[in-house]
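Recall that a protein's primary structure is simply its ordered list of amino acids. Everything else, from secondary elements to tertiary packing, is in principle encoded there. The following example makes that idea concrete.
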Amino acid sequence: MPTIHYLTTADTIAAAAARFSTLPRIGIDLEFDDMRYRYGRHLALIQVFDGNDVYLIDPLPLEPDMAPGLEPLFAVLRDPAVAKVFHSCKSDILLLDEVFGVHCRNIVDTSLQFSLLAAEDNNISLGRLIQAELGFEVDKGEQKSNWLKRPLTEAQKEYAANDVLYLFELTDRLAARLAELGRSQWAAEENAALEAVRYGRDDLRPWARNATKYKISPQEMPLFRELYKLRDAVARQLDRPPYHVVSNDRLAELARQPIETANQLRAANGLHPELKRAPYAEQLLALGTTDLAPEAPLPADQRRFPFRRRLGGNAAARAEARETLLLTLKNHLAADQGPVMANMVLSNRLIAEVVEMGAGTALRPWQQQLLREAAERHGLAYGEVAEPF
């Protein structure tokens, strides 16, 4: 096991970052809490491997404003001269963008590299990848532990170190296998695209996903919406995840059978005690006894109808013909390259995007190449799906 450095001060973090800035690459991973123990998403630990040692960077001693103390490390993440080797980095780079506005450059993702081998149709876990490529198991028992609790246990530190310790060996092995298959450029294109990943800040109706899942009717929707917003306000005030205040199941029950009297509220189960105290108790009772405004339609510029729903007549027939051609090409790709690769080039989502935007916009160059070759091999017209609709 290499030396593990546990860094808790701005000065030691700056000194380590100065070293990282001189390296061609670092291995990196983040531990964070996503509505499990606190409200919102909170960075809990950053692990870095420099090729020799592991650095566990603890941001919690830097609170309440940890960003200035982490800025030297963030500068390294922004620096395109230093490659950042992750495994399955999407959630990490989304957190960096959401919480700190940090956009990582020069990313190498071992999960993405593995996926381009088209060996199996899923996102492989780091533990399984280590076992498959390096032939041994690492303990993943701390995966769901409370990373915001201090002090960290020795088991947590070892788990965190293992998350970065093998990244260089893994990426080098995977890169060599991709090179043998002639797919190095594919990986370069996919990795480059990760630099553009951004956290979506425009969810105007966050309750809508839950409402769909729990089959909330249009009549129940106004109450469900207001209960959802009340739960969120209480959770934010308590700094607890919303499910600690009211579970999703219970929220749906309350929309169908509202609490209308103080006696009902006192007897109600599944509610955080704060909901039975002022001012939230009064708000909850008012929701149960008031006629609420129905869900207002979204402004026209914020509606997101699927492309196909906007079409009719000849345009709909043309779109259907494009989709039929793409499905035919996907079948040929599956026969020629295997179903995993066919789905990577033309997943259901990508087929919908190609119908609307054309392969030249919706697909990476490597995907366009495979699609064009499949069309030529089977006498189909790639040009009919290359351009926007």
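The longest strand covers residues 25-34. Residues 139 and 159 are 7 Å apart (CA to CA).
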